[in-house]
Structure formats: C-alpha cells, structure tokens
Amino acid sequence: MKKIFSLLAVCVMTMLISCADYEEGIKVVNFDVKLEFPSTYDGSYEGLRVELQDAVASTFVDSTDAEGVAHFCVPSGLYKVSSSARKETVDYRYFFNGTKSQVVVAVDSPNVVTLPLVMSKKRIVN
C-alpha cells in the first residue's frame, strides 16, 4: 500500500511540476497606415480603403479617417500594404493606387508606415 501511495504521490508531483503556465492567444499590435496623397489633390482624405495582407493571405481592411490614416490591430508579421480607391467631386473622378511590400509589424518596430499614392483623374462631363 505504501508503494502505491508513494508512486501516486510521485506522479502527482511530476504532473504539477511539468505544467506550464502561459498565456494563450495571439498578441496584436496597433499599427497605422498614413496615405501620402499627391500635392495636386485637394479633396477629402476620408473613406479610402486600405488593406494589409500577411504571408498566408489573411487580409485586414480599414478606411482612412479625415487625416488619411487607417488604424489596424493585427498580429505581428510581414505584410503587404495596399490601397486602391476612387473619389468623386463635382468636376473630377480621382483614382488612387499604392502598394508597399515587406512591411514589418512588430511590437518593437515603428507603428506607422507611410504609403505613397499614385493618382490619376478624369474630368466628368455632364
């Protein structure tokens, strides 16, 4: 009986010692993308679509605020940042495109990246 009790005590102690205490879940990083508009554009910066795509093609999407910044909360990793959008005014239709690859998102990396945009415009004839 003593041997069984001793063996059981050793098993319980081994199990308690070998249990790891770790935090489950994915750590996320607050990350902003600031769109850099051409100097010839004088319209609103709000509402342009911005995408972050990681190495396994998971895509995160947000729209820009009034300052032209999209705010993300994503897991650390390498991302491709892109924006493709269209804005209309009374006289013109503007098209914006930009992409940047190999953007590092991590706790110890800068939390803002600037994405230069290429713009084309078309006059609207009424």
What is the residue-mean pLDDT, rounded to a whole number? 87
What is the helix/strand order?
HEEEEEEEE
Strand content: over 45%
Q: Give the overall shape, derived from the CA principal axes.
A: rod-shaped
Q: Count up the helices.
A: 1
Helical residues, percent = 10-25%
How would you explain this protein's 3D organization?
With 126 residues, the chain is mainly beta. The longest helix is centred in the first third of the chain and has 17 residues, at 2-18. The chain starts with a helix and ends with a strand. It is built from 1 helix and 8 strands, in the order αββββββββ. The protein has a 5-stranded antiparallel beta sheet with strand order 3-2-5-6-8, with no helix packed on it.
Q: What's the helix and strand layout?
A:
Layout: H1 2-18, E1 28-36, E2 49-54, E3 59-63, E4 69-75, E5 77-88, E6 92-105, E7 112-116, E8 118-123
Parallel strand pairs: 1-7
Antiparallel strand pairs: 1-4, 2-3, 2-5, 5-6, 6-8
Quick summary of this structure?
With 126 residues, the protein is mostly beta strands. The chain is 13% helix and 51% strand. It contains 1 helix and 8 strands; from the N terminus they run αββββββββ.
Keywords:
51% strand; 126 residues; five-stranded antiparallel beta sheet
